[in-house]
Design brief:
Structural class: alpha+beta
Helix content: 40-55%
Strand content: 15-25%
Largest sheet: 5 strands, mixed
Distance between the termini: 132 Å
Length: 341
């Protein structure tokens, strides 16, 4: 509802109503052959309900949830909201010449008792409805009425939805073949673009696999050498342990020497097979560490009536030994000589 404002300012009073109530009113009007143009709050009838003098009228209207004042003292009635119902007809505003209650009320709302009306009275209700009808027909209402479009019914909505769905299906069927062709072309182009990427990915995978194999081979090749190097760093102690563990009964080890050319084990045995067993056991013990045993000398030095005494010399070829002290020493003959086993 439009309300006059101060100066050129335009003001409006807004009231809400549920859509269910609008639908109910519209259905009833439709049954009577009418059509709903709009909905406005019934407050603010711009005509007096009682006789008025030359000064016009002032009416206070009390409705559920709102109280309004209709000031008809000017050329055009003015409708305003009353914030405080208790001051509707006192010093806070002009003296009301009449009052209207939507429901019966014991108070006169600041108006004379003979000018206080209630819509519960059939005569007042008829007069009020006739006045509003006259105002609307003459288009002189202070409250403007705008057309309210009738919302489509459920059947109409269903029909529209079905029609739209049919149109969409028709368009989809008409365009389906073309879309399939375009999709196939796009898929072919995508495969062509992805082919180099897939090849590069396979190459990277193969390179990674070869690198892992190379690392494994390098580690496996370096493992024994590193193990032999670590074993050689403690060579004297390792050789003593090996000789002690492999020496059979009847074999005596008299010396164990190590120099840049290798190692040498000297000793004697009271049995010929004792030397052979000692040589085989010691060779098997030292072979995993890269140390090779070479029997160099074995001879009988004492042939007693019961047992004999055999001397033996075993040479050890040891890897990772320090370099020779000088070239002259490297060319010097081995004073130990070579004898057949």
């Amino acid at each position: 509802r439009r309300a006059p404002g101060a100066g050129s300012t335009r003001g409006f009073h807004v009231q809400q109503i549920s859509q269910a109530e609008i639908d109910d009113v519209e259905d009833r009007l439709h049954e009577l052959g009418g059509r709903l143009l709009g909905v406005a709050h019934p407050a603010g009838l711009p005509r007096p309900l009682a006789s008025v003098g030359e000064d016009g009228f002032v009416r206070n209207e009390r409705w559920p949830g709102v109280t309004v004042r209709v000031d008809g003292r000017g050329p055009e009635p003015h409708v305003s909201l009353v914030r405080d119902r208790a001051t509707a007809g006192g010093a806070a505003g002009p003296v009301a010449t009449e009052a209207l209650h939507a429901t019966p009320s014991p108070t006169a709302n600041g108006a004379p008792p003979d000018a206080t009306f209630t819509l519960a009275d059939p005569e007042t209700l008829n007069r009020w409805l006739e006045s509003w009808a006259s105002v609307l027909i003459e288009s002189k209402a202070g409250a403007g009425i705008g057309p309210t479009p009738r919302p489509p019914s459920v059947a109409r909505r269903v029909a529209v939805a079905v029609a739209l769905a049919a149109v969409c299906v028709a368009v989809a069927l008409w365009d389906r073949d073309r879309l399939n062709d375009r999709r196939q072309v796009a898929a072919t182009e995508l495969r062509a673009l992805r082919a180099p990427i897939d090849e590069a990915t396979q190459l990277r995978t193969e390179i990674s696999r070869l690198r892992r194999e190379l690392d494994e081979l390098t580690a496996s090749a370096a493992g024994p050498a590193a193990s032999r190097s670590a074993w050689t760093s403690g060579l004297p102690a390792h050789l003593l342990d090996a000789v002690a563990d492999c020496r059979p009964s009847g074999v005596m080890v008299e010396s164990l020497g190590i120099d840049w050319r290798g190692g040498q084990v000297e000793g004697s045995s009271i049995a010929l097979d004792g030397v052979d067993r000692f040589s085989r056991a010691l060779s098997d013990r030292l072979a995993p560490h890269g140390v090779h045993l070479v029997p160099r000398r074995r001879r009988l030095v004492d042939d007693g009536p019961r047992i004999g005494l055999y001397e033996f010399v075993l040479d050890l070829r040891i890897p990772d030994l320090p370099a020779e002290p000088s070239s002259a020493a490297a060319t010097a003959p081995d004073p130990r000589g070579e004898e057949e086993w």
